[in-house]
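REQUEST ID: PR-0412
SUBMITTED BY: lab tech R.K.
PRIORITY: routine
TASK: structure prediction, single protein chain
INPUT:
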Amino acid sequence: MAKIPFNEKELEVVGTYKNRLGVEMPVLNYPCTMAEADKANRLDRDPIFMQMGIETALLCPDIIPDDRARGFVLMDKPVAREDFGGKDMFGIEWVFVPKVGGSMVKPGNPTLEDAAEWKNIIKMPDIDSWDWEASHEACKPYLDAAEGKSISLWFLNGMWFERLISFMDFEGAAMALLDEDQVESVKEIAHEITSLYLRMMDKFAKYFPEIKAISVHDDWGSQGAPFFSEQIAREVYLPEMKRFTDAVHSHGWICDLHSCGHVEDRCGVFVDAGFDSWTPMAMNDTVALWEKYGDKITIGVINPFHFDPATATEEEQRECARKYAEKFCKPGTTVQWSTYNNAAEMTPAFFTELYKQSRIAYSK
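STATUS: complete
OUTPUT:
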C-alpha cells in the first residue's frame, strides 16, 4: 500500500465506544479500515498507524467444542457461564472454574499415559459432520457489527504442547518430551493435530469469508521459565508451527501466536516458525524483545514510560505517548501496544496522541 500522508482531519472524533474496562474511547476519522491497518502492520510490515487493540475482533464460535469447554465463546449469542466446561472435540472433560474465568481438564485421570499408544486411544473429531453453514449464520450479527475490523479466529485449547497436556496431564506431557521411547510419538501427535487444524482452517475459509487473521493458543512457560528446552521446541514443534503458519499465509491471513509464561528465550523459535505477531506477558522483557526481533515479528511492547491514569494530567499522558512513539515507531520495524498488560493506560488522550505520532512517523 502506498504511504498515506497524515492529515489533521484524521483526529476528528466521529464516534465513541467503551473499551473492556468501561472507558469511553474516541473513534477517529481513520484513513483506512481497521482490517487494512492490521494487514499493513502485521502482515505487510509497513504500518499505517501503531497497532493499539482497536483493529481486531476475536471470533470464538462454539461450532468448535473446545471453545465452550474452555469457557471462551465470542459470537453474537452469549453462552451462560453455567454452560461452560464439558467435553472438547476429543471427548476430554473440562471443568469451568468461575473464580478464574477459565477451565481445566479434570486432573488425575489422563486419557493417554504413554504417547506411543496414541493411535489406539486418541480419535480425531469428524469436522465434516459439524454444521458450518448454521455456525456462520449464528455468528453473522457479531461479524456484521465488527464490519471494517480485522476478524481474528482464535484457535483455543492449545495446538501443540497444551494439547498434549490435555491428553496426558502436565507431568505426563513434560516427561513424554524427554523420554526417547515417547518423543517420536509426540511428533506424530503434533503432526496429526496440525493436520486437523489445517482442515478446520479450510472449512473456516469456505464458510467464514470475513476472517482476516488466525490466533493460535499454546502456552510454553511458567512465571519463571519455559517448560522445555529450545532444542525440544525446534525438534518437536517448530516444523509443525512452520507448516501451520505457511497454510495461514496461503489464505492471505495474519498468523498470531498467544503464548503465556516467561518464554522470551523462545522468541527466536516463534520468528523462525513464521508467526506475524506475539504479545508476551509482563514477566518478559518486551522492550529487549522488540529491539532484537522488531524487524521480524510484531511484538506487543509493555509501556516503559508508565503514568498513573488516575493522577496524570492530559499533557503528561500525551508526553508519554510521544515518548512511546519516538522509541518504537521506527522504519523497518513494527510494534503493537500491549493492551494485554497496559489496558488502563490507554486513555483517550494517550490514544489520540499515540495515533497521531505513529501516523506521522509511519507516513514518512
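NOTES: The domain at 8-67+106-362 is CATH 3.20.20.210 (TIM Barrel).
REVIEWED BY: pending
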